[in-house]
Specification:
single chain; alpha/beta; Rossmann fold
Length: about 250
């Protein structure tokens, strides 16, 4: 993972993303007795909904951020602190579920290899992340502002920390990792945050504002939001449904 998180703020403001996560959870076929990996559990609020669908099963929640894991462990029975690129479970799981995580992983080829290794043959991967075109207007406004004279000193060595992949590239990577019956599609999902400035600072603009002094972050987020106009974050989500092959 290429960024750090304010986990307490994320736990509070990320409720705005629950509708997106709910659609992904609805696509996950479960009997109720499976073992499911939540790949990128965050603070565990969505994971708790997954756990409700597994009354006789088990959820293994994984996240790479220590502060996120600390909050998730307050409510979930099994949470592992681990980068997904280093994932190595002792036994394979029946299914993998993930929301709003894969775009923070730069190496998707290695990511899908690790997920395939964690999944039993025939097991299903159901996920959603930022895809091609995600937050295009927001990111363009933030990048332009970061390059201005006022803000440039804070961003002299800034590099993007997200990977918004397209459908065709993702299908090829999944197939190379051993997945079959692969379905990928992009879905525009404009979102109106309940607390827009804190939401921007914590989630989509986090890679920018975490480079700034604490007393300048709201100023930067406010300037970006005013340049974008309107009241929505221009999300485009990449949906993934795939099954691990027998090899």
């Amino acid at each position: 993972m290429g960024r750090s998180w304010d986990a307490a703020s994320y736990h509070r403001v990320s409720t705005s993303m629950d509708a997106m996560a709910g659609q992904v959870l609805d696509r996950l076929p479960l009997r109720g007795d499976e073992t499911v990996l939540d790949a990128g559990c965050g603070t565990g609020r969505v994971t708790a909904r997954l756990l409700e669908r597994l009354p006789r099963g088990r959820v293994i929640a994984v996240d790479a951020d220590p502060a996120m894991v600390a909050i998730a462990r307050e409510t979930l029975p099994e949470v592992i602190l681990c980068d997904l690129l280093a994932l190595d479970l002792p036994e394979p799981v029946d299914a993998i579920f993930s929301t709003a995580t894969f775009h923070w992983v730069l190496d998707h080829a290695l990511l899908f290899d690790r997920l395939a290794a964690a999944l039993r043959p025939g097991g299903v991967l159901v996920a959603q992340c930022g895809g091609a075109g995600n937050i295009a207007a927001l990111a363009a406004a933030a990048s332009a502002l970061a390059g201005s004279a006022l803000w440039r000193p804070f961003f002299t060595d800034y590099t993007e920390v997200w990977n918004f992949a397209d459908e065709a590239t993702t299908r090829r990577r999944l197939a190379r990792a051993g997945f079959e019956d692969v379905s990928c599609w992009l879905q525009p999902f404009p979102l109106t945050p309940a607390e827009p400035l804190e939401y921007l600072e914590t989630v989509p603009l986090g890679p920018f504002v975490q480079r700034l002094p604490a007393d300048r972050r709201r100023e930067f987020a406010t300037a970006v939001w005013s340049q974008v106009g309107g009241d929505t974050v221009d999300y485009v989500r990449l949906n993934i449904v795939a099954r691990r092959g027998s090899r």
